[in-house]
Amino acid sequence: MPRVVVNVMPKPEILDPQGKAVTGALRRLGFDGMSVRQGKRFEIEVDGELTPELLARIEEAAETLLANTVIESFDVVAD
User: Fold this and answer.
1) How far, in Å, CA of 19 to CA of 24, rounded?
2) Alpha-helical runs (H) found in the chain
3) Would you state the pLDDT for residue 79?
4) Number of domains observed in the structure of the chain
5) CATH number, domain at 54?
6) Could you give the subunit structure recorded for this chain (predicted)?
7) Strand 3-10 relative to strand 40-45: parallel, antiparallel, unpaired?
8) Can you list the pairs that 51-55 forms with residues at least 24 positions away whose Cβ atoms lie under 8 Å?
9) How far is 20 from 38, CA to CA, in rounded Å?
10) pLDDT, tens digit, 9 for 90 and up, residues 22-75
């Protein structure tokens, strides 16, 4: 069964409080020199063949529901 991954991340100009909290915790634990931005990952399993039309529908779903495109960007990756 084919799998498609949709990665959603805050746009670079958007404040990421969760990422800042993780960055601070890593620094306190001795992991210096790292900066974290936290996003979301969706794995979508599809029935049948993965066609360009189906990928377009998944992208439409990501834009409609999975990502808030005002503050987030996303990419669709076919496994």
Assistant:
1) 9
2) 17-28, 52-61
3) 78
4) 1
5) 3.30.1280.10
6) Part of the FGAM synthase complex composed of 1 PurL, 1 PurQ and 2 PurS subunits.
7) antiparallel
8) 55/4
9) 9
10) 999 999 999 999 999 999 999 999 999 999 999 999 999 999 999 999 999 999
